[in-house]
Amino acid sequence: MIVLAGIERHFLVGDQTVAALHGIDLSLTEGEYAAVMGPSGSGKSTLLNILGLLDRPDAGTYRLGGLETTGLGEERRAALRRQRIGFIFQSFHLIPRLSAAENVELPLTLAGMAPRERKERVAEVLASMGLSARARHRPDQLSGGQRQRVAIARATVTAPDLILADEPTGNLDRASGEEVIRALEALNARGLTLILVTHDPQIGARARRRIRMDDGAIVEDLCA
Amino acid sequence: MRLRDVLGFAAQALSGHRTRTWLTLLAVGLGSAAVVLLSALGEGARVYVQDQFAQLGTHLLIVLPGRNETTGGPPPLLGATARDLTLDDALAMGRARGVVRLAPLAVGSAPVAAGGLEREVNILGTTADFLAVRHLSMGQGDFLPAGDPSRGRGVAVLGKTLAKELFGNRQAVGEWVRIGQRRFRVIGILASSGQSLGDTLDDLAIIPVASAQALFNSPGLFRVVVETRDRETLRSAEAAVKDIVRARHEGEDDVTVITQDAMLATFDKILRALTLAVAGIAAISLAVAGVLIMNVMLVSVAQRTSEVGLLKALGAAQGQVAALFLAEALLLSAAGTLAGLALAVTVVAGFNAIYSSFQLVIPTWAPLAAAGVSLGAGVVFGLTPALRAARLDPVHALSGR
User: Fold this and answer.
1) Which of A219, B30, B90, B345 could form a disulfide bond with B104, CB atoms 3.0-4.6 angstroms apart?
2) Do the Cβ atoms of A82 and A110 come closer than 8 Å?
3) Could you tell me the pTM of the whole model?
4) Measured between CB atoms, which of B5, B307, B317 is closest to A75?
């Protein structure tokens, strides 16, 4: 499903070029559960941004579902994000003035879906996350775990086939983190490809595939 | 994305920062209210002047003796002195096609005395038709009798103020007054005419034109006021009147004819220009409100950078992001305009209810112009912040940098 070949990504820091990613070759099949681990600055997040089509590599190719993406225009990349990819962030990125349901509805609204259909889908997804009772609450009225579950609902409401989670438990206590990981694993069990960036070795150990990065390169790629 | 959703999202975003939104709405509202109110003031003045002219009759010709010309140069073979405009000239004009009635005017000033009191006032010599030509009405008694205008009868009609000054509360009709060295019997008092273009008819005496000519010892008329059948015949009647005078004055074009229309058109033009000028100045304040919108939107984009990043991660294309922020700017200007127009309409209605003599009139173009300028400013000044949001790099935006 995902094939990365010879990915390079450089950043200009002052007058020095720093390689954030260097010679990344990686392929993942559909329904895989992978954890990307490594110290800060090892290029985990950059890799995730490239996988999520938020960033473009300076060199190399990225095929997503058989489609070569590096040459696509911004509009096509936005459409792919909308249809195929769900993002989950460490800081949730919920819009504070919108209710939980409205936050979950946002991707469907952006896609131009009819309001009635949207409401049905949102209600379904919130129910599956056990958040039906919280639908009208605003993010500041929700606990951290609930917020992240709202974010997971938002990421899955468009029925994507790839979930990218960047430190999803980074701002949560252990119990809430556990809940969130379970929710993500449940999605994976339904066949969604799940890629998880984490610092936490315990969480990383749960993934069937563990990718360890250092200094912009993949140093270890283990399949359980 | 659906238009309703775009507007809904923008409205929610605006309600997120209330104070800023209210202040911007206030600025836009005051600007558009100013455009409408100032143009209503100008238009009101124009309508007021038009009404004043209509009171005089809008299809009048005013014939003055003499002509605007440059004299001097080589000595002419014939004398260049303008002839007087005589009563006979005036009566001849009455035969021109399209002329309904006319009033010759001989004007001068003389002391009017009754009992022991004397007052120096303007004396107007005219005929019975003057009453109809000037749309005047009598307070008491009768106006000058119809009949041969060349016969000077000893009757006078007094203005209201003059009658009060000379007779106080006593009955004036039927009494005698002395004007100059002649005696006149008072046959009527004019109803108060109010001010008509600053010229009051309350403090004068009206006597038959022939009597005035005798009194002032001059055969010349001050002017002749000619009423035509309607506005359409004004031009042809003007030509006919000129032809008659030319024929009677041995081919000399020695009168000047002013149409009421021409005067009205001049006032109209001046007041329209004035209205546009003040509305234009007000429109500048609206444009300034546009700058405020831009400022507010730039702050909004800066504060919501991570939201923009999120929208992009959720699959919003650049155009969508731009549309969302532009919709906010447009909502601000549209809501502000609506509030401003409502304010203006309320103020105009209130003003008109209090002052009956001068009415504010909102010209149709004013609200349209206000809305146009305000929405235009919304687009122009909303575009930069919207494009700035659309061009944000999603990775940087998400990290809040």
Assistant:
1) B90
2) yes
3) 0.74
4) B317
